[in-house]
Amino acid sequence: MVEPWLGSGLALEDLPIPRLIVIKLAAGARPDFTALRQALAAQVATASLDDHRRWIDRMRTMAGTAVGGGIAILALVLAATVLSVTFATRGTMAANRPIIEVLHYVGATDAFIADQFQRHFLALGFKGGAIGGGAAILLFAVVEAANSWLAGTAGGDEIAALFGNLTIGVSGYMAILLQVVFMALVTAFASRQTVNRTLKAID
């Protein structure tokens, strides 16, 4: 474990390096750690047993917190998107109120007017989603390139041990593209609902 940093051919007797015995359990095995710890202490007084349960519990807690935080951030982003589209739609309608009234006078239906706003904001939603999704894809591509470049090195092994595989694969990129489409649809839906409510108020 220390050879990458200190080199090969070490005289371990001259260094205060602890001796480690790694035991891998068979799948489904449930050993008695308390009895194993007592037996180990009886044989070697200075020995200690680390079963990694505390570390795994902490990692699970961290992972659960990260997932919960991600879901909360996604909900906030959706709420902010809906509010932004609502205010933008109202502002656009206020600026074009004379045109909307003329369209009403010549017989344009509310559905026709709502369709025009929906198409406009759908295109804006796709543009914004494409910018954000493209930035995310570029970021993950850079991370994957750095991960492959560091593979096999001491630093790369440490990163892999702490964070695991940093690649998202084809399914991850597809998920990003689906999010782009989803955000565009949310934008179009929020715009249409705002237009319908505003037109009813005008009528």
Compact description:
The chain is mainly alpha-helical.
What is the arithmetic mean of pLDDT? 82
Shape: elongated
Residues in helices, as a percent range: over 70%
Which structural class do you get from the secondary structure elements? mainly alpha
CA radius of gyration: 30 Å
Unreliable sequence segments:
none
Order of helices and strands: HHHHHHH
Largest sheet: none
Distance between the termini: 77 Å
Report the portion of residues in β strands.
Answer: under 5%
Quantity of strands, as a count: 0
Q: Can you count the helices?
A: 7
Structure description:
The protein has 203 residues and is mainly alpha-helical. The chain has helices at residues 3-6, 33-43, 53-95, 97-105, 110-150, 154-163, 169-202. The longest helix is centred in the middle third of the chain and has 43 residues, at 53-95. It is elongated. 10% of the residues are buried.
Properties at a glance:
mainly alpha, 7 helices, single chain, 203 residues
List strands and helices in order, with pairings:
Layout: H1 3-6, H2 33-43, H3 53-95, H4 97-105, H5 110-150, H6 154-163, H7 169-202
Helix pairs in contact: 3-7, 5-7
